User: Fold this.
Amino acid sequence: MGLLSRSEVETGIPVCDALKRPARPVWLVHGGDHFTVLFRPWWGGGAAADARAAVAAADADADAGGASATAAAGAGAAGDVKAAFARIFAELVKQGVAPNAAAAQALQQAAAEAAKPAAKSAKAAPAGGAQLPALPFLHWNGLPPGGPRMAAVAVAPRAGPGRGPDGAVGPAPAAHTPGYVKPVPGEIDSVVQSRKEDKAARPDAYRTWRYEVVLAVDDPTVADSGAKRADVATFAQGDAAPGEPWRCAACYAQRFKTMCFGLNDPLPPAQLAAAGDDVQGALRAQPCRHCAKPRGEGGWSLWMPFERLPPPQQRQMARRHAAKVEVVLWTKWPEAAVHYGGDNSKPPSV
Ligand SMILES: [Zn+2]
Assistant:
């Protein structure tokens, strides 16, 4: 049995390779404070006919007290797994927590969902490499309030550097390498928050929200690590928006030392009116009330729609705002599109 854990995302320490690639396709899913189970059903490919046949086998197994599925499963490890799943499934059916028809229907829907082009789904993971065929799973959550629930989950992995042909992550590096790299001026230093109105209007669609970002300013007191990075996206500060509160980028860069997040009120209308034609000049001259640097010198935060964020920040926001089950699944299949059978608007809780 394997293990996938949300702690990997929080700590940056990968789960052991053997637990990510167990001998049997069964994973304990550690969502943080709760454990659930994810497993490959005993049929391949997710075809509805196979699902129905497997469900019928589980039915027969339940009727015959476990003998028929074992007999039908064939020999070897694959047969063992098939029989084990059939027994587990039959037991769940007996307890009334996973009606067979509903499970078969859920799998059918998961397969159909997985067949849809990823671009059409607002909930799909950030676009990366080629989308690979979807893998059908069942996810079992045994406890209230999210359960008891058996959910069909289809994972469509993506190809990418350092991943296997199945889109799963490769072995973890032998040693941890310290992550700090001095940012380039104009690069996104951090994503501060998402726009509250966007979040309230479309709570599940984080890819449609706007985000407040602070651009990096050069800090001469920090040494350059010398590491060269390819394709670092940088942004121009652009024009300041009159009438909007702003965040001082110079103060924000020092926030861990000062605990000051650099928020400032808009320039008062009277001063704006007095500026005449040079509105930008007046906005840029407004001093930060925390550090007294003129706005134009210290820099200020920008609002960007999700699609304008560079891939690293898109991935970061996906980890912050996607369903918890997806965040955990991405530790094995990075950037995979995840679809749910049955009620696709409700990811299983982990
Ligand atoms: Zn400031």
About this structure: The first helix runs from residue 7 to 11. The two ends are 17 Å apart (CA to CA).
